[in-house]
Design goal:
The chain is of the alpha+beta class. Among the domains are: 49-53 and 133-213 and 305-417, D-Maltodextrin-Binding Protein, domain 2, CATH 3.40.190.10; 217-302, 3-Layer(aba) Sandwich (D-Maltodextrin-Binding Protein, domain 2). The protein contains twelve helices and 19 strands. It has helices at residues 49-70, 79-85, 121-124, 145-153, 165-173, 193-201, 236-241, 243-248, 261-270, 282-288, 337-346, 394-406, and strands spanning 86-87, 90-91, 135-139, 158-162, 179-186, 190-191, 205-213, 217-220, 231-234, 254-257, 276-280, 291-295, 304-311, 323-330, 352-359, 365-370, 374-379, 381-387, 409-417. The strands form five sheets. Strands 3, 4, 5, 6, 7 and 13 form a six-stranded mixed beta sheet that branches. Strands 10-9-11-8-12 form a five-stranded mixed beta sheet. α11 packs antiparallel against α12 (394-406). The chain starts with 48 loop residues before the first helix and ends in a 12-residue tail after the last strand. The structure holds prephenic acid.
Length: 429
């Protein structure tokens, strides 16, 4: 294994846990990643199918609220109106091959079985599972923080371990999972850039976020003492979150990166390594039979990782609770584009919670020729912005319409409820 520093790109570590996880081999099936579709967004925001789906969601939420507003409560429809006019809540004129209604027969309340309840908009909105277990893909093995985040986002879900972030995206695209839960940033370690790049490359939608307090432990085989240790292994984010504490503990160790924290614990247990410790959760210690040498070794007690939940379809944005919207954009050139974009939000009193820039993969460099001085190489970026508003709000729609005027590319990654769970920095997982 190679020694690493926390800032290196560490996705390709050599330690692989032995438990079966979704991996590259599961990529056998047809790749059903949506590619450059040509549907034009009516208001001009982007041109992809994903944008179109987002706009559909926005439109249906408007229709929903209009329906609610315009309902004539003084004259409720009769039961026969319902039966004749609606099939599962939808008016229909097409032949659905249903048993014909005998108009002459007096309408009787049906005995057995009770009539099927029409689907309502709330049945469709949060999850497609309707009682069955949600399958949630995450990167890592059982005991990883991502697994805990999946459990927080979808209690009682079936968590599906994947060996890479990319595989978690594909698990959803190939219908092996219903959702993916992926870390995007940590309060100490910063952004998980890989996932920002993957959000752009894939066509999944952000449908929610969870913030997980991350409480790290130093784990080793039973009987191992701190003095025996020559190396500490963990996920690069975890290594960086504990950098100072590991130094303060006086350990004479090298730090090495692996795919995930729990995978590190499992690796030590499987290979009976008495000179190696892992940074991982207390749950990982329990799962892989390790002892906790030090508890709470993150450099800050309030260490939190933010995860996003991804789905094939966007959710319908609402205005009855705090929402966040994530977008990504690029611009060709021009003066003060970033300033103009940010003003579009500022003038509407919309708070930005995050800005991240990543290299523009398709066009990383722009050459600017100056006859006198030579050629300057300008780096090109994709800008990711999170703002506190719902796409169901007119001010957010107007802000984006304005942003679109200055940008060459704009995509709404998702409009989703903010995680508002009370702050509790104590014990995480
Ligand atoms: O390795 C894990 O346990 C993970 O879930 C990954 C991950 C990350 O990528 O940031 C998640 C939360 C912690 O910040 C450390 C690691």
């Amino acid at each position: 294994m190679q020694a690493v520093t926390p800032t290196q790109n560490l996705n390709s570590s050599i330690i692989r846990p032995s438990k079966p996880r979704l991996n590259q081999l599961t990529r056998f099936a047809v790749r059903c990643v949506y590619r450059s579709d040509s549907v034009q967004f009516p208001n001009g925001v982007g041109s992809s199918r994903a944008d179109w789906q987002s706009s559909c969601a926005i439109l249906s939420s408007k229709v929903f609220s209009q329906d609610q507003d315009s309902g004539d409560k003084s004259n409720p429809p009769s039961a026969s109106d319902h039966l004749a006019a609606a099939v599962n809540g939808h008016k229909t004129s097409i032949d659905l091959n249903l048993v014909p209604i005998n108009k002459n027969k007096k309408l009787q309340p049906p005995s057995q079985p009770p009539p099927q309840k029409p689907l309502t908009i709330t049945d469709l909105s949060p999850a497609p599972m309707h009682g069955s277990q949600m399958r949630v893909a995450y990167q890592g093995v059982p005991g990883a923080y991502s697994e805990a985040a999946a459990g927080k986002a979808y209690p009682n879900c079936e968590a599906i371990p994947c060996d890479q972030f990319e595989v978690a995206f594909q698990a959803v695209e190939l219908w092996i999972a219903d959702r993916a839960v992926l870390p995007v940033e940590n309060s100490l370690g910063g952004s998980i850039h890989r996932n920002y790049d993957l959000l752009l490359r894939h066509r999944l939608h952000i449908v929610g976020e969870v913030q997980l307090p991350v409480h790290h432990c130093l784990l080793a085989l039973p009987g191992v003492k701190k003095e025996y240790l020559t190396r500490v292994i963990s996920h690069p984010q975890a290594l960086s979150q504990c950098e100072h504490t590991i130094t303060k503990l006086g350990l004479n160790v090298t730090r090495e990166a692996v795919d995930d924290t729990a995978g590190a614990a499992e690796y030590i247990a499987t290979n009976n390594l008495r000179d190696t410790a892992a940074i991982a959760s207390a749950r990982a210690a329990e799962l892989y039979g390790l002892q906790i040498l030090a508890d709470g070794i993150q450099d800050d007690l309030g260490n939190v990782t933010r995860f996003v939940m991804l789905a094939r379809d966007p959710i319908i944005p609402r205005t009855d609770r705090p929402f966040k919207t994530s977008i990504v954009f690029a611009h060709d050139k021009g003066t003060s584009v970033l300033f103009k974009v940010l003003s579009a939000f500022a003038f509407r009193n919309i708070s930005l919670t995050k800005i991240e820039s990543r290299p523009h993969r398709n066009r990383p460099i722009r050459l600017v020729d100056d006859a006198n001085v030579g050629t300057a190489k300008h780096f090109e970026y994709m800008f990711y912005v999170d703002f506190e508003a719902s796409m169901a709000e007119v001010r957010a729609q107007n802000a984006l319409a304005e942003v679109q005027e200055f940008t060459s590319f704009l995509r709404v990654l998702g409009s989703y409820p903010m995680d508002m769970t009370p702050w509790c920095p104590s014990r995480g997982v």
